[in-house]
């Protein structure tokens, strides 16, 4: 998993409440266990017109937001069913940070497991950022995980909270597997000892 330290990036706005995981990545894209190639399914029903052509009004189809790495959205983002494909699709699109007033709990946890930083700001702060994005093409923010701050081009700084354990894992680029592999020597020693103590557990069937 790629570590997250600081990020200065273009902001894309998704001005919608209660965006659920089926809207982020619909069910037909859940057949794969690969983490790549999902960007085409991201916001599938919103990015296309009924005839299947790209909707020029939706942000992912606009050149202005093509290289965005920060997604700005509204309350309860990532609600609905639990699917890790949702953060996979967002990451495949290029998003490393999502800013909202609130997130659904499971989605929030899944973001940290996949190298995305979900930032919770006050509703008024999020509204101010939406206004900034609308007013200035190429609007960028700087996210500093160590300082736990979001800095605007105007110099305004917003502070966010993050649990120390999650912060440390994301800063080091460690998901659950990475955490386990840090203890690989101890795991190998335990398996060697158990094989000697109970060889029948390791016999070929």
Low-confidence segments, given as residue ranges, are: none
Q: Architecture of the largest domain, according to CATH?
A: Alpha-Beta Barrel
The helix content, as a percent range, equals 25-40%
Q: Tell me about the biggest sheet?
A: 7 strands, mixed
Tell me the structural class: alpha/beta
Could you state the order of secondary-structure elements as H and E? EHHEHEHEHEEEHHH
* Radius of gyration (Å): 20 Å
Number of helices: 8
Side by side, the strands of the main sheet go 4-3-2-1-5-6-7
Shape, per Cα inertia axes: globular
Rounded to the nearest angstrom, the distance between the terminal CA atoms is 35 Å
Count all strands and give the number. Answer: 7
Q: What descriptors fit this protein?
A:
205 residues, alpha/beta, Aconitase, domain 4, 2 domains, seven-stranded mixed beta sheet, 15% strand, globular
